[in-house]
Amino acid sequence: MASQDSTYASPKWWKEAIIYQVYPSSFQSHPGNTTGWGSVKGITSRLDYLKELGVDVLWTSPIYKSPQADMGYDIADYEDIDPCYGTLADVDDLIRELKRRDMRLVMDLVVNHTSNQHAWFLESKSSKTNPKRDWYIWKAPKSINPDGSPEPPNNWAQILGEANSAWNYDQVTGEYYLGLFTPDQPDLNWENPEVREAVWDVMHFWLKRGVSGFRMDVINLISKVPSYPDAPLILGPGHKYQPGQQFFVNGPKLHDYLTEMNRQVLSKYDALALGEMPFIYDEDEILKAVGARSGELNMIFIFGLVDIDNPNVRMALKPWTVREMKAIITRWQRTMIEKDGWNTVFIENHDQPRSVSRYADDSDEWRDKGAKLLALMQTTLGGTLFVYQGEEIGMRNARSGEWPPEAFRDVETINYWKKVQTLYANDPDMLSLGRKVMDMKARDHARTPMQWSAAPNAGFCDPEVTPWMRVMSDYKTVNVESQMQQQSGEDSDGELTTWQFWQRCLKNRAEHKEVFVYGDFHDQSPADPNVYAYIRTSSVDSGDRWLVVLNFSGQKQRFVLPEALELESWALGNYVSEKTPRKPLGRAVDLQEWEGLIGKVRR
Ligand code: GLC
Description:
five-stranded antiparallel beta sheet, 17% strand, 24 strands
């Protein structure tokens, strides 16, 4: 367990909260709204639903004023709401309604970059002498080609379109600006103290308005290596531009900036400080940010698990094994306990394909079992738990080949498909591999409208309105209404639906938070290629111990209990029709395909 002076198990609201992520464009529209987009009013109308599921905190992806080049992750005004979502008054109302239910709101803070339509950037690009010129990262061309065309300052590739340069030429002033994600998202220059002050102001603005913290978008990208060197050629010679991650991920001043943010803003509130930190797996770097005494953030999203099938870039496929998956999870469970940090537990968000399609089996036969298996795992791991909209009903990716390329709306997918078509126009195998990557990895899969019911548009918006993004074709069978209504569980012998199972698992986590949120963690099956089994031990003197056994395969498996372990009872399982699993309590557990169980260990 952790050292004597560890604060790992000291209670905090943001440790035990169940945080539900809403993707606002696709969560819920409101009656009479003809835009085909979700809205703030729509979110407010679903708070009772979230409460019933067991949610405490709602995090919404950006709803600020934005041209929506990257679905709101390109902000044009940090202190106003985009008209497609509503008004500031609607947000005040949302905060009030959340408070009434003892719930909280967390906003997305996107301050590595702004929109190219933000007033700061419009000023910055207006002339080399504008006072805001230095708020962004401007550089002269590296060279001028014989034909007079300029070359970008270095070879860094755009993150959401790696065939393109991360630098964008501005004809008027003859310089390039850096836009790591897309040209519509110019990176702010955090070296400039005025920029940092402006960010602190934005944070105070929202915290004073009643929000309870921030999920900080790509916060580990805010400090760049000041010499802006060329990146190594890891994508091979056919690629002019290369991932420059090593020069802008956890850069030289990151920890200074986060410490300053903590001092200037976070320390003055009891706020959640959650950083999104892609591309970093180094333990020391991560602990600098989330160590209990770091004075920086409370927790970060570590990308190990969701990067498991990514080689150098996200839109690609890499084979992986269950053993690797288990090792990643175990590593971060143990690290945070031993080194007094704090974990996030997440497996889905708006940037990832659906988890049941990725880590389990999303066929009609196994979808429900797989989604419940993942629910059992998520709700029994240590750290702050995040549930992404639709995960609670086991929403899955579009069926392979079902969508034509035009159905994909995300800028990353569009850039990817453009690249594949340009590079491999005459290579049917590569074109079909490209389609496969889209079917398995595109962010679009997580962004389809929430499936509320079997009504037209899945109840997401009025029947006569066309949703901004196509509704998944399985909404008549996979939807909230049917999963909440089905007779099951407590009073009958019927099996719980995915939704009911999530609700039950969340309740179990809340009832035993000293075990599942704050407790110790020990992997019991590191070598097993299919079964993930671990023990969670209560952080308080009661010493309660629970065994979790998860079969991550489509074959039956047997798990033999460790010598010193005897089970008192099974408590929850994804296969059973009864309230508690009627499984034998012997030394070996026979598991069905994708079966998961948790049981109490005898003392
Ligand atoms: C984060 C967001 C993603 C966005 C990117 C740029 O990774 O989650 O959706 O495209 O940052 O803001």
